[in-house]
Amino acid sequence: SSLLASRHICWAGLSPLACRLQVRRNFKVSVVGAAGGIGQPLSLLLMYNSMITELVLHDLVNVKGVSADLSHVSTATDVKGFQGPEQLEKAVRGADLVIITAGMGRGPGMTREQLFEINAKIIIQTVNAIAKNSAHALIAIVTNPINTLVPMAAEVLKRNQVFDPNRLFGVTTLDCVRAERFIGNYFNIDPKEVKVPVIGGHSGITIMPILSQCKPAVNADEECIAALVQRIQMAGDEIVLAKEGKGSATLSIAYATNRFADALLKGLKGDKTPIESAYVQSDLTEACFFATPLSFGPKGIEENHGIPELNDVEKLALESAVSDLKKSIEKGISYV
Ligand code: LMR
Cα-flanking dihedrals φ and ψ of residue 311, to 5°? Predict the structure, then answer.
């Protein structure tokens, strides 16, 4: 389809070279874990992104069916499927963006950290494959526990001598999506009108919605604000409970991850990007990975917008979040 795009412009009278210069190359996105509960709806949403001309699906099972199914969607995106550990390298080769959703989700009574042992090996294997086959790809990790797996992934990339802190992300967009939705409900307004920074990490008290900086302003009493914050922090558990033993959130994560991927790709393309938070290497606090609002460019992170102004309650919450994150980060780094 990139050929089609350049032919199209050539017909308009430009040389093939001009075509290549004018048409920003189209993007190849690989989804690892594509046949799973998050991977399937995410891949469907990615099919609608006109910047993606090649969507590569990888999983351990069922990839053939999912990719055949998606290949009937009437968009210009090519779909390819690869299955099994032996095809992982092929699946990520030459990708501009690899989104990792592979691994186990939580069941009732579990914390995200309890998934670490189960999911660490999958992330190590995938990140090694990326390091060897698409070292310049942006990497977006959705698999939990994000707080621990992202620093661990950084370590794996360092060992392969290809770590670039501007290209590795833990996807925390779901926390922003939830904050927008819950605050939107509270005000009875469209969530799209809610702008609220969510910083920190992606688990319990490390999820820090900064309601003092919300637009429109949340003029509510302390108790009400505390309740909103707690709902955002515990929203993942709300879904685990509602699914009654059949896993954790999938559809809202797919929605959020698609939104994040779109911002990354706009950056790669050189367009002005929306600001999205993500969990990245950071020197803003004592936690060397920390989510803050970012904007993106052709090399990944273009600008880290830093920690927004905090009120006294939020300052205290930041201390607890940082101390929690430091432990998770240390665990990830020492595992490698
Ligand atoms: C979420 O926030 O819904 C996800 O991180 C899944 C989970 O385990 O809660």
Answer: -85, 180
For residue 235, the CA-to-ligand 1 centroid distance in Å is 8
Tokens of 279: 């969990």
Q: Quick check: is 202 catalytic?
A: yes
- For residue 25, pLDDT over 70 is answered with no
Q: What is the pTM of this model?
A: 0.93
State yes or no: 7 annotated in a binding site: no
260 vs 45: CA distance, rounded Å: 12
The angle formed by the CA atoms of residues 112, 166 and 147, to the nearest 5 degrees, is: 10
Residue 70: name the closest of 95, 43, 97, 52 by CA: 43
Which tens digit of pLDDT belongs to each residue from 121-138? 999 999 999 999 999 999
CA distance 153 to 173: 19
Q: Is 170 in the pocket of ligand 1 (CB under 6 A)?
A: no
Task: Please tell me whether residue 44 adopts helix, strand or coil conformation.
Answer: helix
